[in-house]
Write a structure and sequence with these properties.
The protein contains twelve helices and 16 strands. The chain has 356 residues and is of the alpha/beta class. The chain has two domains: 207 residues, L-asparaginase, N-terminal domain (Rossmann fold), CATH 3.40.50.1170; 120 residues, Rossmann fold (3-Layer(aba) Sandwich), CATH 3.40.50.40. The chain has an eight-stranded mixed sheet with strand order 4-1-5-6-7-8-11-12, sandwiched between helices. The chain has a four-stranded parallel sheet with strand order 13-14-15-16, with helices on both faces. Strands 2-3 form a two-stranded antiparallel ribbon. The two termini are 34 Å apart. It binds aspartic acid. The site of aspartic acid has 10 residues, from loops.
């Protein structure tokens, strides 16, 4: 990663934001083989912001930019990328009033959810954004997204990880990418917006924020993390006709320490004792197993169906209405720490950062 500009005066930098550029379509430029992540982001960003009407430029906060030396398409992000980002923010945490992370949209909501757990207790904003089209493309959504992300990142009433996209501010642990082409590619299916753009104003709804809901909670401290780099957590979406041996192939693998199961509807599974036996065995071996629904909205209620009831007896934890991103990254977050299984299970069921 390139270094932040050396700011002699920390006092001064505390008035500034830090923009961290990781790659993604927003910063890509066309090459012979298609769009490729491109550098020089700081000058390109300044150039783009200069195109805003003067009245909007005047309300922009001051910022510094750092760029990762290896810019990625976000499909290449892994739990190690999430961990690196959290560390980079934590190291500069007291130097900046807020952070903007520029990220590819495809896995942006995964990174956002992971950062929310890792940076628990934030007292300032961390905003992720990206774009569906490159910054320099005609009619790109990039400038609007960058503008809004900078404005919300300067709002000290916001004290959590959030995603700003297409005029909407969403909780990081509640957002999903819901469209592969539309400009409003993200939504927050089970939690209201934290804020939104209305005309030239960027309105925050404070009572929906963690700062309001977790008043008095302990403040930020980077957790003691081990790298999760070997596929320790799997995500398995049920399909009609899934066989027990197929489930077992993943759950019984010695590297697997946790699994997210995506069940039918409100928590239904086939009434197949062999499937339940595989899950119960993995859970009995100390693997952390949680379940959410395949439906983008609504909760799982595992006791609602007899078959689902068997899951609870097999030790499967309910993920309620969590997004796949929030549930998966939470499993990673818990498995990465030196916690007992009992502690991991208890924390999974507890709302840590408004994810459930
Ligand atoms: N492929 C891109 C990425 O996620 C898509 C985007 O940024 O919109 O990095």
């Amino acid at each position: 990663m390139s270094q932040a500009p050396l700011l002699a005066d920390v006092q001064q930098s505390q008035e500034r934001l830090l923009v961290i550029y990781t790659g993604g379509t927003i910063g890509m430029q066309p090459q012979a083989n298609g769009l490729t992540p491109a550098g020089e982001f700081s000058s390109r960003l300044a150039h783009a912001l200069n195109q805003l009407p003067v009245r909007l430029q005047q309300s922009l906060p001051a910022y510094d930019v750092i760029s990762y030396s290896t810019l990625i398409d976000s499909s290449a992000a892994t739990p190690l990328t999430w961990q690196q980002l959290a560390t980079d923010i934590a190291e500069r945490f007291t130097d900046y009033r807020g952070f903007v992370v520029i990220h590819g949209t495809d896995t942006l909501s995964w990174t956002a959810a992971s950062l929310a757990y890792q940076l628990q207790g934030l007292d300032r904003p961390v905003i992720l954004t990206g774009a569906m089209a490159p910054l320099e493309a005609h009619h790109s959504d990039a400038l609007d997204n960058l503008h809004g992300a900078l404005r919300f990142a300067a709002n000290s009433a916001l004290q959590e990880v959030a995603i700003y996209f297409a005029g909407r501010l969403m909780r990081g642990t509640r957002a999903i990418k819901q469209h592969s082409e539309a400009v409003d590619a993200f939504s927050s299916p089970s939690y209201p917006l934290l804020g939104e753009r209305v005309g030239d104003d960027f309105i925050l709804y404070p009572s929906r924020g963690l700062a309001y809901q977790q008043r008095g909670a302990p403040r930020f401290e980077l957790v003691d993390y081990q790298p999760v780099a070997h596929g320790e957590v799997v995500r398995i979406t049920l399909w009609p006709g899934m066989a027990a041996w197929q489930l077992e192939a993943w759950l019984s693998h010695p590297s697997v320490k946790g699994a997210l199961l995506q069940l039918w509807g409100a928590g239904n599974v086939p009434d197949n004792p062999a499937l339940l036996a595989v899950i119960a065995k993995a859970s009995g071996e100390g693997k952390l197993i949680a379940a959410i629904s395949q439906c983008p909205q609504g909760s799982v209620h595992m006791g609602a169906y007899a078959a689902g009831h068997g899951l609870a007896n097999a030790g499967v934890l309910s993920g309620d209405d969590m997004t796949p991103e929030a549930a998966y990254t939470k499993l990673v977050h818990l498995i990465a720490q030196p916690l007992s299984l009992e502690d991991q299970r208890r924390r999974f069921l507890t709302a840590l950062v408004g994810e459930r």
